[in-house]
Amino acid sequence: MRAMIAVVAGVLVASGLAVSAAGGPGGAGAQDAKVAAGEKVYAAQKCAMCHAIAGKGMKAYPLDGVGDKLPADDIRAWVVTPDDMAAKQATKAKMKMKAFKLEAADLDALVAYVGSLKK
């Protein structure tokens, strides 16, 4: 009986370590996956038509370093309600950003990706 308990305990500890090493639910691994999914949403929505990342895309509106400047809620607001966010700016952009209607998971992923763009 003790041997069986020891085996079960060992399996639980080992599986816990594996989950921990992989980032676990909601951990770094999950965040990395969300950022990768967000990069795909960025490409699918053709965001590079108006924005640039690492010199690729429309250089007039680069997103490099935006993750250092804006919290996730502001990034989300720029995607969903850009007119409201533009109204808060001291200087007005030459181009008007359109509002995007994305599935919740896609929006969360895009926000995670843009938020990961730090210098």
Give a nutshell description of this structure.
57% of the residues lie in helices and 3% in strands. The protein has 119 residues and is mostly helical. It has a two-stranded antiparallel sheet with strand order 1-2.
Notable characteristics:
single chain; about 120 residues; mainly alpha; Cytochrome Bc1 Complex, Chain D, domain 2; two-stranded antiparallel sheet; about 5% strand
Query: How far do the termini sit from each other?
Result: 56 Å
Order of helices and strands: HHEEHHHH
CATH architecture: Orthogonal Bundle
Helix content: 55-70%
The value of Rg in angstroms is 20 Å
Overall mean pLDDT stands at 84
| Structure annotation, total helices | 6
User: Which class do the helix and strand fractions yield?
Assistant: mainly alpha
Spans of at least 5 consecutive residues whose pLDDT stays below 50 are 1-23
Largest sheet, order of strands side by side?
1-2
Give the CATH H-level superfamily: Cytochrome c-like domain
Please describe the biggest sheet, giving its number of strands, its sense, and whether it closes into a barrel: 2 strands, antiparallel
Main CATH class: Mainly Alpha
Shape, principal axes of CA atoms:
globular
Care to describe what's here?
With 119 residues, the chain is mainly alpha-helical. The protein has one domain: Cytochrome Bc1 Complex, Chain D, domain 2 (Orthogonal Bundle). It has six helices and two strands; from the N terminus they run ααββαααα. It has a two-stranded antiparallel ribbon. α2 crosses α6 and α4 packs across α6. It is globular, with a radius of gyration of 20 Å.
